[in-house]
Structure formats: C-alpha cells, structure tokens
UniProtKB/TrEMBL annotation:
Record-annotated membrane-spanning stretches: none
Annotated organism of origin: Micromonospora krabiensis
Gene Ontology annotations of biological process type: D-alanine transmembrane transport; L-alanine transport; L-isoleucine import across plasma membrane; L-valine import across plasma membrane
Name of the molecule in the record: Amino acid/amide ABC transporter ATP-binding protein 1, HAAT family (TC 3.A.1.4.-)
GO annotation, cellular component aspect: plasma membrane
Length: 247
C-alpha cells in the first residue's frame, strides 16, 4: 500500500553542517511513529522539511504518493499535514474559539462549494466540537494570550485538528507540561482516531513507548535505527547514543 508519507534521501545543510544527511522515513496511514535522538540530531529539521517550512537541498517528500517536495506549508496543509510546534503558536489577541475557527475556516467546506455563511457556521461547529475534546470549552471566550502554557498546547492541538490532518506532526508536545497536563495529553493522543497518523518528536521515552508503534532514531542528521519500541529499547546502539549525549 502507498505510504501516507515517504521521505527519501532528505538532506539539509546549514553552512558546513548537515542537519539532515540522506534521511529516509516512511509513515503509514494511522501509524503512531516516534522520532527520537540526542539534541541536535535533526528531528525538528525533519519535521520542518515534511511540513514544507524548510526546503531540502537533496531528497524528496511524497504524501500519499504525490511528490510535494517543492510545495510550501499551505499546500502541505491542504494535503493533510497538521503541525504543532515546540512553542505553541496561537494568535494571542484572538479568543480561544476564534483561534480554532480561523484554523478551521479554510477546511470548513469542500473546494468549489465555498459560501462565506456556510463556511463560518461549519467552522464554528468544528471549533465547538474540538474545544470540547481538548477540554477548553469553558475558556472559549478568553483571549488566547491569557492561557497557561499547557492550555496553549491543547489549543494548538485543536487548531491543528481543525485542518482535518491525515498526518499530525507533534514537536515535543509534553515539554513544559505538568504531570497532570501530560496525563491529559496522553489520554487525548491515545483517543485520536486512526484516520490521523502521528509523527511525534519527544524526549520523554516513557511517552514514546506508551504511544507509538514505530520508532526512528536520528543522530547527527542520519538514521541510527528504526523499529518497534521493544527493538529500540533493546538496542545497544541506541543506548550508547543516548549515553553519549542527550536530553
Ligand atoms: N536555522 C538554522 N541555522 C543553523 N543551524 C541550524 C538551524 N536549524 C537547526 N540547525 C542545526 O541543525 C542541527 C539539527 O537541529 P534540530 O533542531 O533539527 O535538532 P533536534 O534533533 O530537533 O534537536 P533538539 O532535540 O535539541 O530540539 C543542530 O546542530 C542545529 O544547531
């Protein structure tokens, strides 16, 4: 079956540094795939390339078999790529509900059927549902800038889901969250429908092993290992890479 995401030979250079050096990655429909590795391994750069925010100097990105290497972030989003960032990116002066509605609007009606009133109503309904799901319904009227970090994280996830992604890129979603908030996040991610595949960058290996069925380990811009959580957990190569300098 054609994979949802296929990346071949991705290379990104910053001066003499190869942030990515010929990386291959495959994510299947509905998969929970983790990307781990020491600091500076290239994990965020790989998400950037998949999201279309960074153009590689070599390699190709295919989404459901289509080459999108030359397409920007908006085109990737239309093709089903959603993303949350290391630092939650929300519009601080808009309310929580408005943030999700704005994110939902371009996806609210099918292309060619655009009518402003219909789209606005659909976006409003999507926002209501998603704010319920992430537990922010009671804060819907609050400016997003007033939210605590963990709440912003939930809001950004709701905004990403408003784009109806088939592939959700999550960059360290647990960073800066309290233990309770991590529990909420994990519960939420476990309940995500399988129609959404997840590519998760996370330093907390307990979360990786709990949430993911496949793990790819990067180091110095290259793939060090890939396999099931059990295989990665048992890998001496991975253990050494982590012992030598991580997190
Ligand atoms: N815009 C940039 N300009 C120059 N170097 C960069 C840039 N972005 C990333 N790098 C370098 O590329 C390498 C890979 O960085 P990247 O952020 O992808 O790593 P990472 O695995 O996500 O690390 P971390 O776990 O610390 O977030 C690092 O050496 C980093 O310093």
């Amino acid at each position: 079956m054609t994979p949802l995401l296929a990346a071949h030979g991705l290379t990104v250079r910053y001066g003499s540094l190869a942030a990515l050096d010929g990386v291959d990655l495959r994510v299947d429909h509905g998969q929970r795939h983790a990307l781990i590795g020491p600091n500076g391994a290239g994990k965020t750069t790989l998400l950037d390339v998949i999201a279309g925010a960074t153009r590689p100097v070599g390699g190709r990105v295919l989404l459901a078999g289509r080459d999108v290497t030359r397409r920007g972030p908006a085109a990737r989003s239309r093709r089903g790529v959603g993303r949350i960032h290391q630092r939650p990116a929300v519009w601080a002066t808009l309310t929580v509900a408005e943030n999700v509605r704005v994110a939902a609007l371009p996806h609210a009606v099918r292309p060619g059927r655009w009518r402003p009133g219909v789209a606005r109503r659909a976006a409003r309904a999507t926002a209501d549902t998603l704010l319920d799901r992430v537990g922010l319904h009671d804060l819907a009227a609050r400016p997003a800038g007033q939210l605590a970090h963990g709440q912003r994280r939930q809001l950004e996830i709701a905004m990403a889901l408003a784009g109806r992604p088939r592939l959700l890129l999550l960059d360290e979603p647990a960073a800066g969250l309290s233990a309770t908030e991590v529990g909420v996040l994990v519960g939420f991610l476990r309940e995500l429908p399988r129609a959404v595949a997840v590519l998760l960058v996370e330093h907390r290996l307990d979360l990786v092993y709990e949430l993911c069925d496949t793990v790819t380990v990067l180091r110095d811009g290259r793939t060090l290992a890939a396999g099931s959580p059990a295989e990665i957990r048992g890998s001496e190569l991975v253990r050494r890479a982590y012992a030598e300098g991580v997190v």
